[in-house]
Amino acid sequence: MLGFPQIWQYPRHFLVPKQERCQKLGLGKFNDSNIERSSRNLGKNKGVEEVMSRNILRLICGLGLTLSSLCFATAQSDSLSDTQDQQTKSSTQAQEQDQAPQKPTDPSGFDGDYAFQILKAICDLGPRVSASEPMLKQQQMIREHFEGLGATVINQDFLAAHPLDNKRQVQLRNMIVRFHPENKRRLLLGCHYDTRPFPDRDQHNPQGLFLGANDGASGVGFFFELGKHLVDLKGKYGIDLIFFDGEEFVWRTGIDPMFLGSTHFATEYAKNRWNGKYAYGIVVDMIADKELELYFEGNSVQYAPKLAQSIWGVAKELGVKEFIPEQRHHIRDDHLPLNSIARIPTVDIIDFDYPNVNVGNIYWHTEKDLPENCSAESLEKVGRVLLEWLRQMQNMK
Ligand SMILES: [Zn+2]
To answer: Which has the closest alpha carbon to 324: 337, 338, 334, 309?
Structure first.
């Protein structure tokens, strides 16, 4: 992932004057008919609308809606249902007193410890730069795990010129893991699984070792655990987990193109909707930060405002306060091609304050992006929210 809170820019082909984007609800280079089509797609999906409307109403009624920018409305959270939370906590505590003092189990069943163990195992492979040996090992791990669960795993291979040698073609690979592939109505959850070649923002060693525990391995560990729940999570939608390659095959900062895998996927999808039709997409990136703080991401809110409010609304229902319904950053990430090329309304769930908002994003793209700065609890919180969101989506008529 790459993003600059203050001086962010779209890639050149996304570049549209900001005011214009705002007027068009953030739909970058779309023309009016595309905007209408996008809006219709949202409107068609009645079940999603119900989830979203319910959560939006909750946010509006319970909290009040305020404009956080000229572009869109962001629900402002003030007081969560503290009384209810306290009651729930009290009864939970009473039950727990009868038991041995163990770490409480996540009621959703999402095992953050397992996701974190996978994160560490992925880091143990070494840096997973596109087309490198550790990347090939990671691909093998992904195939074995998800085929073992009974999912269908598809490699989407493509060639890209190596940034340092245009004559050299490198093979990159998106991996598409499909649950219930017979269902034509689908949801997409994506993460990148490559790592940046160098920790180029590291003040001491910018050519050093970049492990990408949070920026790379967190999504993989998360999906390994999430996949275990998707086999039995049947309903309105089939679900695809997509591992995008080449998100940051960046050898020269600010020069080399990003989002190679998601751009390839989005382009192929736009040509031929071979996977059925994706109603919505969610990209997760940097979700294992030990001090989890998940704000609305600006481009997501511009492209897919109802989806963003729906997910953060579920977090509010569950009392997961790390999902903060305020906008904080504009991030360039894999959700941009999914929104603008594939036209799948897609939200980026990302913690761009690594380790926290007080000191800033100082671990990002540095040698500090290590498992010790990530946690199982953070992965579990995101898992709890997304599993519940998926359950609600699956149960919609
Ligand atoms: Zn990154």
So the answer is: 309
